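Student: Please help interpret what follows.
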Amino acid sequence: MPIGGPGPDALPLGRLAREASEAVREGRRQGSPETEAAVRQAVLGTVFRVELVLRIIEVSGTALRMETFILAALSAHVALTLETATERPAATTRLAVAPGPPREGGPARELVERATSSPEAAYDDGTRGVAAGDHRGALMRIGVGLPSIIPNTTGKTVIAWGREAERLGFASLATIGRLTYPALEELVALSAVAAVTERIQLLTNVLIGPARDPVELAKQAASLDNLSDGRFTLGLAAGWREDDFTVTGRPWRTRGRRLDDDLEVMTKVWAGETVRGSWKPISPRPTNGQAVPMIFGGTAQACFDRAARWGIGWTSGGTAPDVASKHFESARAAWKAAGRDGEPQLFALAYYGHGPVARERATEYLGDYYGEWGPGMAASMPVSPEELRATVKAFEAAGADELIFDPTSSTMDQLEGLAKAVLS
């Protein structure tokens, strides 16, 4: 069913949009506290298996059928209505797109794909969306890092953190990772969190790809994609610490070229092709039928080109907003040069702390993780609510689509303090 034609009232979609608009207005009057979770569960539990993120945040829509919400969420009529009907900033409705042939799914899936066709990730299920400066009127999502990388963080803490981050309304949970560090492995940690959450997005920001076997990594990523029902994005980079390669017996100097070769292998694995002499496919197919969505880090030109060829976007790792802005322009330029439609999704990472001993804890952790650079990072990171909000505004102005605040301590007050400062 194409969207368009003689007018919204002449199509079933238009009728559904009008019904949803009426539900929006009624929901604003009633203000049911259970509505947000009910609407999200209804949409995200469907067989479409795409990350539909409704621009319906505070709607009392229990009287409408689930199909009504799905179709209405794809209508510009509903989007415009919600912009004026809700007090909280609206999120976006998008579909993750990766290379490869479309998955068969019938007319309903075709409608979803037409209505959401974009190279951008269907990402946030968080309720924190804010105008991103002058960046084409986009919305910046706010995610939070998992403390799984912080030494002595228990599995119970990681799971509790994941549950609470979803409840608070963060858009995503992200990991950073290296092999030569005594911390929980990132894909394992995200799998545990996937089991106890339903809506929040999951990503590695970033995993060191060429330090691992590409076939095994492809299977692990596709497995996590399936276990999370399509909520996982694989963030990759070539890495810069030589010891991460020494311990796995993989060459360090050729890591960039090998990552490009590895991506060829990984996409073949996801496409169901045989590789390395296998006689049958060795991995589950990604939930979108094509490839696990990927983003890439690194600031060499090859990194931006890699993101434009294989990914849905690029990520900035812990740099200042003004530096990130310049890198974002390089990512957009590479995207355009590659002939990609739309624009890349642009991510940024900022370390943070909360409370009177935040900098002391951060100095210890970041000094251990980054060595001589750590204390300077701890000294400049935001710790007060005012500094956290200023960081949000700075990355909005830089053009980020998503800002991920990475914790420097794994106590739960860090998560709660961040939410109060930037999600309210």
Residues 1-138 have pLDDT under 50 and may be disordered. Residues 144 and 405 are 5 Å apart (CA to CA). The first strand starts at residue 130 and ends at 131. DSSP finds 16 helices and ten strands in the chain.
